[in-house]
Amino acid sequence: MPASSGDLFGNPAASAQIERLFFGIMLPSDAAVAASGVLDDARGESGLRGAPIRVDRMHITLIHVGDYAGSLPRSVVEDAGAAADGLSESAFDVAFDRAASFAGAPGKHPCVLLGDTGLEALTAFRDRLFKALLRAGVRTLSREAFTPHVTLTYGDRQLPARPVDPISWRASEFLLIHSEVGRSTYHTLGRWSLRD
């Protein structure tokens, strides 16, 4: 919903806060600390600059449901949650073994963790979640194609791809998260356990 361009006296309107809704898997603290170490190494080796993602905010985005001006639509939150309720999934292992950069905007290149192996179960789970949302009529900003990654920073340059010591953990839950864009504030709106 677009914000108005100004008031009756020609004063520009304040832009509405963007509220983001996404499904994600948060990194456990030990994996997040290891990921932060990968970024520290990249900074030392290449001079990469950019504010790091806080370790308590590091995650894998599964589905970017949408961005909304001012507030989240209650119906979208409820429908997305109901779609997730319908899944019965097992826990799975996740492993990232490479650091690289996506192209991004000039001076704002996402520096990310990627994996060549160890992400098959994650990709299959994400596909089932994506299809459950489609069946529930939830339109998302995500596409069916999926590149699992963890963003470490938005760097001032592209980082050449490099192997890293594997960062792995067992994913035992996924979350529906409300992010206040630009404020580094997350609110967990739903949490689903993955059974062992």
Describe the structure.
The chain has 196 residues and is α+β, with helices and mostly antiparallel strands. Helices cover 23% and strands 35% of the residues. Strands 2-1-7-8 form a 4-stranded antiparallel sheet, covered by helices on one side. A 4-stranded antiparallel sheet has the order 5-4-3-6, sandwiched between helices. The N and C termini lie far apart (42 Å).
Reconstruct the topology from this structure.
Elements: E1 18-26, H1 29-46, E2 59-69, H2 74-85, E3 92-101, E4 109-114, H3 120-135, E5 150-155, E6 162-171, E7 173-180, E8 185-193
Antiparallel strand pairs: 1-2, 1-7, 3-4, 3-6, 4-5, 7-8
**What is the element string, with H for helices and E for strands?**
EHEHEEHEEEE
CA radius of gyration: 18 Å
Q: How are the strands of the biggest sheet laid out side by side? A: 2-1-7-8
Strand content: 35-45%
Helix percent reads 10-25%
Residue stretches low in confidence (pLDDT < 50, at least 5 long) are 1-9
**Discrete helix count:** 3
Tertiary shape: globular
On the 0 to 100 scale, the average pLDDT is: 91
First-residue to last-residue Cα separation: 42 Å
Largest sheet: number of strands, sense, barrel closure = 4 strands, antiparallel
Total strand count, please? Answer: 8
- Tell me the structural class: alpha+beta
Give a short summary of the structure.
The protein has 196 residues and is α+β, with helices and mostly antiparallel strands.
